User: Fold this.
Amino acid sequence: MSYDRTLASVETYFDKTATRTWERLTSDAPVSKIRETVRRGRDAMRAQMLSRLPDDLRGARILDAGCGAGQMTAELAARGADVVAVDISPSLVSIAQRRLPVDLAHRVDFRAGDMLCDTHGRFDHVIAMDSLIYYGREDLARALGQLSARTAGRVVFTVAPRTPLLMMMWRAGQLFPRSDRSPTMVPHAPASLQKALANTARLTPLGRITSGFYISQAMEVTA
Assistant:
């Protein structure tokens, strides 16, 4: 699908179908054993991505691209960053706003909409955790190019890694109607993505997190 169609699918899923599930998963509420592995994996990935940025972010303007329920947003703000937290789902943005500690509220500008919109301005760094995983290679490369062009430092993001198991699951998923299930993740390999980026940005693969049903690869691009 095109970027716009995928974006609409993601919005429908997270803003209407899966809001309550996502709210529970990103809290400390009891969840199933399967979702517990996903929660642990996401916690580990968030820590890895944050490790790519300075501990002291005072004076830095950071884009949390696809902020979801706001866990990354809160940690960035706690380090002193001025955070623009954007998500395509107004419902998730509302959850993130409610959860943000009051003493950090002055550091965060929450916005519902497309994380690529150029009206968000320029940034010192960008974090995009699991928010670009639904896009094909060309759309992903275009998104990363747009973000890196407006970023002085790092754009740290995640993809579904192109492993034999994930490719098998991805191909099988194409055989069934999506109905109200999550939009399909598109696996990527670093070499292929770098080729699509061409000379617009330099790609560096980071660590991979595997925790039950959560399998994600961190990468970063710099202009």
Summary: The CA atoms of residues 24 and 57 lie 29 Å apart. The chain has one domain: 3-222. The radius of gyration is 16 Å. Confidence is low (pLDDT under 50) at residues 173-180.
